[in-house]
Design goal:
single chain, 331 residues, alpha/beta, Aminopeptidase, seven-stranded mixed beta sheet, 16 strands, binds pyroglutamic acid
């Protein structure tokens, strides 16, 4: 008996230690059906992603009751457990596309009673005002995401708004958390949830300027020198924004440093967000025209004036960018 108690004690002690070493779990919540609905897509999706992992973090799903206990559950859980990311899912009865809810309004106004018969009319939740998700949505490139979600700042005044409010209120750190409202019919909600989690857990975006240096109808490609990261791959000259710089300042400086050329930075060709795995880069591509200077290669070992997009081995999204530049040159 003594041994058993001892072992149990040890297990109790070892457990939290182990939990500390493991990557934090992800929480995905869904809701039970409510009102006239027989089913709730958010419940189905939450159950389907349970146990899957994203960037090394395992998803734990929780189905919430559509009442005060359900609205409070996660906020109460947060005093005992940390999560790497939290997505609350719910059904948006009248929506056609998924809605990424970034704002929790400090208001409840139920059109119908919740599942416990509670019907709150025109009330505040905390009196402390609206709360906002801290996810970096500008880094997400949502135009390319599965099932074409939109950004919304109106989660309604019912349980979905309430659960987001209570969770954001309880979070006192930067844990990424938002509410994903799903339409009753949705193309690939599981894919979308996994993609959202991937965006929430990936490193933040780094702003980088890339110069499309155009001369006599050709554009310049430069090969990264052997000592550089991604050596041997071709890219557009440029680099990271320094504090306070915009794309124009950054490109003027970078091209001066890398090629000893003075350039005039012109029109934007486009912005590309590219995930290299260890770093996510937001490339600001702009047309550049050489004003003066004799080209010298300080970071690259070779350059090539190109007319086609497949003349060299491009790094990351740069071949796609080369095609866009060709489109620009011919305009
Ligand atoms: N949708 C409701 C509450 C539960 C759910 O799935 C809402 O939009 O508030």
């Amino acid at each position: 008996m003594g041994l058993l108690v001892n072992m149990t004690m040890k297990m109790l002690k070892v457990r939290p230690l182990l939990a500390q070493l493991m990557p934090k779990p992800i929480l995905v919540s869904g809701f039970e059906p409510f009102g006239n609905h027989k089913t709730n897509i958010s419940k189905k999706v939450a159950l389907e992603v349970n146990g899957l992992s994203v960037r090394g973090h395992t998803i734990e799903s929780k189905i919430l009751s559509v009442d005060l206990a359900g609205a409070k559950y996660v906020s109460q859980q947060l005093s005992e457990q940390d999560f790497a990311a939290i997505i609350h899912l719910g059904l948006a009865e009248n929506a056609k596309v998924p809605r990424i809810e970034l704002k929790a309004k400090d208001i409840l106004d139920f059109r119908i009673p919740d599942n416990s018969g509670r019907q709150i009319k025109d009330s505040i939740i905390s009196g402390e005002g609206d709360l906002f998700s801290k996810i970096e949505i500008d880094d997400w490139d949502i135009a390319t995401m599965i099932s074409q979600p939109i950004i919304s700042e109106d989660a309604g005044e019912f349980l979905c708004n309430e659960v987001l409010y209570r969770t954001l209120h309880a979070l006192n750190d930067n844990t990424p958390c938002f509410f994903l409202h799903l339409p009753p019919i949705c193309e690939d909600p599981v894919g979308l949830v996994l993609q959202c989690l991937d965006r929430m857990l990936r490193p933040p975006c780094l702003d980088v300027g890339a110069g499309a240096i155009i001369s006599a109808g050709k554009f310049l490609a430069a090969r990264r020198a052997p000592k550089e990261k991604h050596a041997g791959w071709w890219e557009f000259p440029g680099g990271k924004f320094e504090p306070g710089e915009d794309a124009v300042d950054c490109l003027r400086r970078e091209i001066r440093e890398e090629l000893e050329l003075e350039v005039e930075v012109g029109e934007e060709v486009g912005i590309w967000i590219y995930d290299h795995g260890d770093v996510v880069v937001r490339l600001h591509v702009r047309r550049c025209t050489i004003i003066s200077g004799e080209m010298k290669l300080n970071n690259h070992d070779k350059v090539q004036w190109c007319t086609k997009d497949d003349e060299v081995d491009w790094l990351g999204p740069d071949q796609e960018i080369a095609s866009a530049i060709i489109g620009h040159i011919s305009n």
